[in-house]
Design goal:
six-stranded mixed beta sheet; alpha+beta; binds 6-diazenyl-5-OXO-L-norleucine; 9 strands; Beta-lactamase
């Protein structure tokens, strides 16, 4: 089904345009800096399969940290809660997403949650598969099912660009290897993680994935349970407590929608039993969240009373 252009959403995009000059496109992954800072898009999926959209809805962007919540779902399905939460905790950090500080101050050393880079790397390590290629193929198959788009793939250029420059993530991995949180080869895991972060899609695909989380893990088109209910609940809860990093508290108050952001400028939202939302705007605030995306979600939440609180 194609997305219908929608006037109310167009108005929201127009209003969000006023704030995007206050942000900056991510540059620490070199390939991300070519994104158009003025791009803005929003798509909404409803349980009846209808889709509304506005803005630059055909632009594809990489998931970056949004992939963390999808990988968490898959790892929990593959390995179960006990194994996953043996490696990673449940608590927000209040620190930037790439911080190493809590790994050193907490004993035994273990990342505090699966939405920070250290935690996501530890969870990616748990995806089943005989090697990094097999693990990635399984993840891609899962993402294609969630987005209902068999064309979804990853951007080699962005994956390569991050792989070549991810010194901080490698530092996190070596630290965790020293402490037995991961046991595999650091470079193989970096390959898998950078491909995972480079999975690419449009706002519409992202909204469709948000809808699955919103509907308790069930694909409303087919009635198939793609994510078991209990795992879906865990993922949605992490979106509330840690989905917007150290801005999650303010986001919960201003917007109140379970959501996950990424440094390419995407944010996925899941309004329980109502909507899946995908927004895009590569101009970021200082925490690494899309500044236009945050504005659009705030406006949507106010206009349609979407806060879960
Ligand atoms: O590992 C990284 O730094 C990136 N691939 C993903 C970080 C990210 O998206 C944080 N988001 N706000």
């Amino acid at each position: 089904m194609t997305c219908q252009e929608n006037e109310q959403l167009e108005a929201i995009v127009e209003e969000a345009k006023h704030v995007i000059t206050h942000g900056k496109v991510a540059t620490y992954i070199p390939a991300l800096q070519s994104a158009d800072p003025n791009a803005l898009a929003v798509a909404i999926y409803r349980p009846d399969g209808s889709c509304l959209a506005a803005g630059n809805i055909d632009i594809k962007f990489t998931l970056q940290s949004i992939s963390k919540v999808l990988v968490l779902a898959l790892a929990l399905m593959d390995r179960g809660e006990e194994t996953v939460f043996h490696k990673v905790g449940y608590e927000p950090t209040g620190d930037p997403f790439d911080s190493i500080i809590k790994l050193e101050t907490i004993s035994p050393s273990k990342p505090l949650n699966p939405m920070i880079n250290a935690g996501a790397l530890a969870v990616t390590h748990l995806i089943c598969g005989n090697n990094e290629e097999e693990q990635f193929e399984r993840l891609l198959t899962f993402v294609r099912k969630l987005s209902n788009n068999p064309q979804v793939t990853y951007c080699e250029n962005v994956a390569h660009s991050e792989f070549e420059t991810a010194y901080l993530n490698r530092a996190l991995l070596f630290y965790m290897k020293q402490h037995g949180v991961i046991t595999c080869d650091v470079e193989a895991l970096m390959k898998l993680y950078t491909k995972q972060c480079a999975i690419e899609m449009t706002c519409r695909d992202l909204a469709r994935i948000g809808l699955i989380f919103a509907m308790g893990g069930i694909d409303p088109d087919t009635g198939v349970q793609l994510i078991p209910t209990a795992i879906n609940t865990i993922c949605k809860t992490f979106m509330v407590t840690c989905g917007m990093y150290n801005a999650s508290g303010e986001f919960a108050i201003r917007v109140g929608i379970p959501a996950k952001s990424g440094v390419s400028g995407g944010i996925m939202g899941a309004v329980p039993n109502k909507l899946g939302i995908g927004v895009y705007g590569p101009s970021l605030d200082t925490m690494g969240n899309s500044i236009g995306g945050l504005k659009m979600l705030e406006l949507l939440s106010k206009e349609y009373a979407l806060s879960i609180f």
